[in-house]
Specification:
The protein has a single domain (12-98), classed as Serine Threonine Protein Phosphatase 5, Tetratricopeptide repeat (Alpha Horseshoe). Helix 2 (28-40) runs antiparallel to helix 3 and helix 4 packs antiparallel against helix 5 (84-98). Helices cover 64% and strands 0% of the residues. It is mainly α and 105 residues long.
């Protein structure tokens, strides 16, 4: 709501605060949203390690968007050291979880 400005004035600090509360309570969508804020620097300073922390929490719980974000981060060195092995592990996990035989390398 606050991150998109839907129905309220856009406020990144309030969005971050609410996402953090949700993330700390184990809400996978809050973990993902907070990780994306830190990854992209949307309304907050870019913070690769914080992005990785929150995205890993969501990805380990099966949240596919977080898994895809980690593939990109590790594959390109986006906010974290480039690590093709980790990118490949997340790629395989995402592919296997979705049963997507069409995703080939």
């Amino acid at each position: 709501m606050y991150s998109s400005g839907e129905g309220v004035e856009r406020n990144a600090k309030l969005a971050e605060s609410w996402y953090l509360k949700a993330a700390e309570r184990g809400d996978v969508r809050g973990q993902y949203a907070l990780g994306q804020m830190y990854r992209t620097g949307t309304g907050v300073p870019k913070d690769g390690p914080a992005a990785e922390k929150w995205l890993l929490m969501a990805a380990n719980r099966g949240y596919e968007d977080a898994q895809f974000s980690l593939i990109t981060m590790y594959g390109m060195g986006d906010g974290v050291p480039k690590d093709p092995e980790k990118a490949d592990q997340w790629y395989r996990r995402l592919r296997d979880n979705r049963g997507l035989s069409s995703l080939y390398r």
